[in-house]
User: What shape does this take?
Amino acid sequence: RDAMASASVDVASASVYVKVNMHLGALDAGARLSAEVAADVTKAALTQSFGCVHGAVPFDVVFAVEAGAGGEGEPAAVIKVDARDRERLLAALALLSAYKGSACALRVTQVSHHLPPMLHNPQKVLAHLH
Assistant: This one.
């Protein structure tokens, strides 16, 4: 019984990865989606939805990828968050409709406990990380 209880605690406190497609009207034509911009958008979503205190959810932007050449793919970010805060993050991202005074569209496309399933093209993503 104790082993089962500790296993459920470990799963409950595990991190999850959230892949989010980000279309930000606030970015200038030459600007690119970066990890810093993705983090700023995520912070804005959390504080607008839950305020400064309840929106204080610790997260990490694992990486952000701009749309490929020729417009292939979509700008996206992968965010790592504690499983306990997953629902709060998902709600905040779904509710954000403006960033820096311009319309934006955020769409969560995948949630996973493991990073590899999120990588459709791991070599391309790893190249962006270096």
In short: The first strand starts at residue 15 and ends at 24. Residues 1-10, 126-130 have pLDDT under 50 and may be disordered. The CA atoms of residues 4 and 85 lie 22 Å apart. The first helix runs from residue 2 to 12.
